[in-house]
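FW: tagging you since you asked about this chain on Friday. Here's the raw sequence from the shared folder, copied in full. Didn't touch anything.
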Amino acid sequence: MLSALISFIIAAVFGAAIFFTTSLHPVVPVVTGLAAFTLIYILLLKQVMKRVGESMDTVQKDLMANRPEAAIHKLEAVQKKYAYWQFFIKKQMNAQIGMIYYMRRDFNKAYEYLDQGFVRHWIAMAMLAIIHMKRNQPKKMIATFEKTLAATRKEALLWSLYAFCLEKIGDRNKAVSVMEKGLKKVGNDDLMKANLESLKAGGKMKMQGYGDLWHQFQLEKQGDLIRKHTKAMQGRRKMVRR
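HL: got it, structure written out here
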């Protein structure tokens, strides 16, 4: 990456200058060079991430204004401009773009990006696992969830999603095992406990408690989502009339 390369070159020149122009102990130029590398790298990293952050703010505004194409275009521009400046930026942008396509239900296009996404972006990786499930690829689904959980162990919804998908493909026993393991990692979580008990009793998991975080994965039938939305709207009208 360019940030590391530039930092290394400047630090090496700085250390070499000290070595050849002074009579100090050889360790001094090495330590000084390392310190210079660290300082320069941090400064470059801050500048790059600041500019990426500014671009992401405009992307968020596009998404809020229902301009997904504009958001994708900006994300691709960020990827092209900064991919060689900092580690993982390309993968992070792939994850973001893949999520937008997923939310638009363009799962084939979403897969192209999510498959090249950042493993620590657990929402994007969960979407990738769900696409594997939709494609009837249970082994790939399980492998993706396991890889994601190795990097992100404290997210209750991630464990619950994994179990939900396992139950959906007919592996209730493994779903129970995943929820038990997840509770040990996450700690006290009432929703996870309730869903674990439901699985053990042969029932379905209730995920609505996770709110919009859950709904973005679009694992409920469209008819159910429409009915819930209609019911919520009717409830709001009644409240207004009162």
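FW: The radius of gyration is 24 Å.
HL: agreed, and Confidence is low (pLDDT under 50) at residues 229-242.
FW: great, closing this out.
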